[in-house]
Amino acid sequence: MAEQSFFGSSLPSPVPRNMSLTPLESVSLPIDLSDFDEVIDVRTPQEFAEDHLPGARNLPVLTNEQRVEVGTLYKESAFKGRRLGAGHVSQAIANYLSGPLRNTDPKWAPLIYCWRGGQRSSAVATILRSVGWRARTLEGGYKAYRRFVMDDLVSRLAHPSLELRVIGGLTGVGKTLLLAALEEAGQQTIDLEKMANHRGSLLGSVGPQPTQRRFETCLHSQLASMDPDRPIYLEAESNRIGSVYLPPALWQRLARSNVIELTLPIRERVLLLLESYRHFLETPESLSEVIEPLGRIRGRAQLQIWHEQIARRAWPDFVTSLLENHYDLCYRQPGSANSNYQPPASQLALSDHSTTSYRNAACTLSKAEGFPAP
Question: Which of 157, 171, 199, 221 could cross-link with 54 by S-S, CB 3.0 to 4.6 Å?
């Protein structure tokens, strides 16, 4: 749907004589978002939810329904569509001036953007500048930003000085806990599972996941904020985490990165998983439903054993069996023919899953690799 269809040049209200309509000012990528007091996304709530610039606030000038309404009318009559859009946009701007922006500092200097830097952002910026605020628009809007993110992500991940450290290991060894301990120790980490809002397995759902675009924007934002001269630790993942995929450039870079294998006795893995997935213990019926697809992989006889263990609340036996008869069998050993990852360059063997163990491991890693905590 064309940006031009959403509204025309109408203003929210007559312009007072002491108010000047200063020329619009736009900026082009790359930019430093910290140069602006605030980043304002004037697209619809639906567009904003799909993805937006880091730290942006959504002040939509069209609702989701209004955007469809204007677009539909525009197909019948461009003039009527623009007129209807202008009315909606004008009313929205007026509401913001009397509401959220009412007490905003006179020196406020925001960045305004819409889908492609068209009429929505221009209309808002025109009025804000006439009030006296230094509102600037993003040239090309979100569409240009999206293109920049993907191009810059490829460039950063291909940079020869980038050093990724991949934490590998069987399910339940506490790779995420080690990442948290490394971050606590001052090391640079990227938690892909947290970013994807998914733990990366059949039982890994923890709620709604971000869109692919949102995931990639968050990844780029975090990567861009890091020191390229220091290593970055990540957890070994498959190329898909729930419903989102690792960008090809990241997947390829992970394949060339050093792997640190983390090990933990199976008894400790079971205890850790029981602590991490406690919600399933409280709703065993949902657990039975989630594991049902495993019958196609491990057979109905094995599935029946798991269902019986769940019914008896035999949790240590269930988790042990699930690890030994499913997850460990699925594990692709780094360096093997079916793995994306290099053979482990080093190994960290933990005796238990205590917080102290992971903190000590993080300290050991930092010192061994010559990058102690800053």
Answer: 221
